[in-house]
Amino acid sequence: MPFLNLYPKEIGFNMLKNFRYPLGILFSNTLIGPYEVQLDIIHKCNLASCVTCWFYSPYRKKKISKKWVEQTLDFESFKSLVDSIKKIRTTQISIIGEGEPFLHKNIMEMLSYIKESKMKCKVITNGTLLTDKKIHELANIGVDEINISINAGTASTFYKVNPKSPKRIFEKLRENIILFSQYENRPIITFSNVISNINYLEIEKMLDFGIECKADRIYFKILDTFSEIEKLTLNDEQKMEMIDSIMKIDKFKMKNMKNNLNEFMQFCLNHEKAVEETPCYMGYVFSRIKDSKYVVPCCGCYTNPIGKISNNKSFEKIWKSKKYSAFRKNVFNQKRREKAGCECHQCPHFTENKKLDKLFKFIKILK
Ligand SMILES: C[S@@+](CC[C@H](N)C(=O)[O-])C[C@H]1O[C@@H](n2cnc3c(N)ncnc32)[C@H](O)[C@@H]1O
Ligand code: SF4
Ligand code: SF4
Known about the structure:
- By secondary structure, the chain is an alpha/beta fold.
- The chain has helices at residues 9-17, 20-26, 66-70, 75-87, 107-116, 132-141, 155-161, 169-179, 203-212, 236-247, 251-256, 261-269, 271-276, 282-285, 315-319, 322-332, 350-359, 361-366; strands at residues 36-40, 92-96, 120-125, 145-149, 188-195, 217-222, 258-259, 286-290, 294-296, 307-308.
- A ten-stranded mixed sheet has the order 7-6-5-4-3-2-1-8-9-10.
- Helix 6 (132-141) links the parallel strand 3 and strand 4 (145-149).
- It starts with 8 loop residues before the first helix and ends with a helix.
- The chain binds S-adenosylmethionine and iron/sulfur cluster (2 copies).
């Protein structure tokens, strides 16, 4: 499962300025917490029908249970997790779900708590529950980034990738996102698009939609597959057709909107080779806590937790454990990657690793 982030230059330089990251990578050790921790807070989803979704795709044969859907992270447990993550000087907490975070009854308090704890704060959302009032609140709280999963450039494609979504929801989403631009202190707006054979010829329209909604960045990612949605993956011909269409996009338009199209095309052309040639930095900068307690080191190792948080096992203990350290070493060294037991061939963090590799090139030489 991907975490949809762009590691823009400013974040990279923050990492570089903090000597603990480069030194940690150099000596295969951790001198600080992850730069970003993603926290799952909810399983329920208001759309519950995105065709690519690991949990809610209508193509999934095994339906999820009512008990699973009801699982949430309660506010008290959330606060203690945030406190422990802050202790090891993590910079950012990103709120996500195996469902939709804006359905959590305490979402605004949670975001405020992160900001009061002096950390950066991001939410990954389908955006369809945003309202005038919520947008005002988000700007007031000082949320740093909102990642809106659009997965389309036009209304008709949006309804194809979210077949059960209510009427006019795309149009309402557009109207609401534009409202962010009236706030001086607004969050960074990132649009993310998971690309399947339904929307692969809409890359330019996705860029246009981002520009129209005054988004700051746009992120593209080939879908992660599982057996039931294999039919949604692009074949080689479609990949080339898509790359051709990207090459024809006006350069000025490309410059107008921060994007990861270079990394995206590199991944599409030969993802196995692209991943193989790039060291993995995720063990030093990222972690995810799913189902309130399972610590997974990246979204490609989603079914393979490094540890389980409990009364006598804090996040810090797991982060500093031998098992986590072995993961870091294995995935940095591409040849030992299979030992980590992750889905590296379809790495969901390729863009981030590629960007970090440029930044930390000097470490690779010293190592
Ligand atoms: C599972 S959703 C949860 C958060 C929220 N409901 C949302 O849609 O943003 C997290 C992210 O996974 C993306 N996603 C869904 N199915 C995917 C797939 N098969 N491969 C890659 N990303 C996928 C979504 O577009 C979204 O950006
Ligand atoms: S909105 Fe998010 S959680 Fe809900 S179905 Fe779509 S991808 Fe899955
Ligand atoms: S290379 Fe493998 S371990 Fe590293 S982020 Fe990608 S999937 Fe995870």
